């Protein structure tokens, strides 16, 4: 395993590259006028490898931001004006802005939940001081339904007679 290098590209492919073949190819090309097949294959592997990994723009994962993405970038403070946003942005910048916004929304929801809990405690204590309980409310509601039911029975009985 000492002769292998594992290089991971951004698209998730693992490239196995034997470094000693490239070094051997360089030595063979320097010592002889006509390189062997082994040296040629090692050189082409090395050239493909160098071409693939020397230009980092291949790995840049950019996309055009949508209008909603632009709003997110403005809300999170990444850019001051809509005109400042470039036409192509890396996904990392967009994901970071979305995560910041998601965290802010979570903080707002936590604050609103705590505010709602405090409000319910205050309203509950005020209702307890007035003597207004759920038992009383339910008893009044059921008495009202009973009275309405009796009135309907009397009216239906009066119509049949």
Automatic annotation (TrEMBL):
<comment type="similarity">
    <text>Belongs to the UPF0389 family.</text>
</comment>
<feature type="transmembrane region" description="Helical">
    <location>
        <begin position="107"/>
        <end position="128"/>
    </location>
</feature>
<dbReference type="InterPro" id="IPR009432">
    <property type="entry name" value="DUF1075"/>
</dbReference>
<keyword id="KW-0472">Membrane</keyword>
<dbReference type="Pfam" id="PF06388">
    <property type="entry name" value="DUF1075"/>
</dbReference>
<dbReference type="GO" id="GO:0005739">
    <property type="term" value="C:mitochondrion"/>
</dbReference>
<feature type="region of interest" description="Disordered">
    <location>
        <begin position="141"/>
        <end position="161"/>
    </location>
</feature>
<protein>
    <submittedName>
        <fullName>Protein FAM162A-like</fullName>
    </submittedName>
</protein>
<dbReference type="GO" id="GO:0071456">
    <property type="term" value="P:cellular response to hypoxia"/>
</dbReference>
<keyword id="KW-0812">Transmembrane</keyword>
<dbReference type="GO" id="GO:0090200">
    <property type="term" value="P:positive regulation of release of cytochrome c from mitochondria"/>
</dbReference>
<dbReference type="GO" id="GO:0051402">
    <property type="term" value="P:neuron apoptotic process"/>
</dbReference>
<keyword id="KW-1133">Transmembrane helix</keyword>
<dbReference type="GO" id="GO:0016020">
    <property type="term" value="C:membrane"/>
</dbReference>
